[in-house]
Design goal:
Layout (H helix, E strand, L loop, with lengths): L7 H12 L2 H17 L6 H15 L6 H11 L2 H5 L4 H7 E4 L3 E4 L1 H9 L11 H14 L12 H14 L7 H15 L13 E5 L5 E5 L1
Antiparallel strand pairs: 1-2, 3-4
Helix pairs in contact: 1-10, 2-3, 3-4, 6-7, 8-10
Length: 217
């Protein structure tokens, strides 16, 4: 499958497409208000817990112990780091001990938590973004990196910056790049449940890029 290399026109197309997704736009707006206006700091447990639960519900991030995550965030005293755009915060937030027994890596959640405080400085990671970045790396060789590098946030952010430079997309901020990667990745690499209702071995769909994509069931 040949993926159209991102251009200014394609990125703009996905900005317009995003604005038509009423549920996502409203969700982002409400979370932005919660994180930047209602509870901008991260020192009170009840306030952080509300933010953790809201993110977990809206994004289905599978945080099965929001209280443990909220206590962990409080213990890190992250507000100074956020103000300085400290990328190490993401991996620090991600690694949570639950019930003092086992450590979990809630990496995608941690990128979202920081991003909703400062969306231009903390782009979001998720599996759709990962798949598209890996596919474009293989196709266009836009930058040399390993899949594991995407889970180290300082490296991940640098990869996005290199991505933006390679494709001459510097006029777009990282949040706009994020919107393109997530939407295009979701279209080009749909999860298996898209095919649950079909008994066929393959199914076809059309992406926003006009591609007729055939995927195995």
């Amino acid at each position: 499958m040949k993926i159209p290399s991102p251009t200014k026109q394609i990125i703009s197309l996905y900005q317009e497409k995003w604005d038509t997704l009423e549920n996502y736009v409203a969700q982002e707006r409400s979370l932005r208000k919660l994180f930047t206006q209602t509870y901008p700091n991260n020192t009170e447990l009840d306030e952080v817990l509300i933010k953790v639960c809201s993110l977990n519900d809206f994004y289905s991030t599978n945080i099965f112990s929001p209280f443990s995550v909220a206590k962990h965030i409080i213990s890190l005293d992250i507000d100074k780091g956020l103000s300085n755009n400290d990328t190490n915060l993401v991996n620090d937030i991600a690694k949570v001990n639950v019930n003092g027994k086992k450590q979990f890596n809630f990496y995608s959640f941690a990128t979202k938590y920081c991003s909703h405080h400062k969306p231009l400085d903390y782009p979001i990671y998720d599996s759709y973004v990962e798949k598209l970045l890996m596919a474009l790396k293989k196709q266009d060789n836009f930058f040399k990196f390993h899949k594991a590098d995407l889970k180290v946030y300082s490296s991940y952010k640098n990869i996005l910056i290199k991505f933006r430079k390679f494709y001459e997309l510097e006029e777009f901020d990282l949040k706009q790049i994020d919107k393109y990667l997530w939407q295009a990745g979701k279209e080009l690499f749909p999860k298996s449940e898209y095919n649950k209702e079909s008994s066929k071995e393959r199914f076809t769909y059309t992406s926003a890029l006009g591609l007729s994509v055939i995927k195995k069931g």
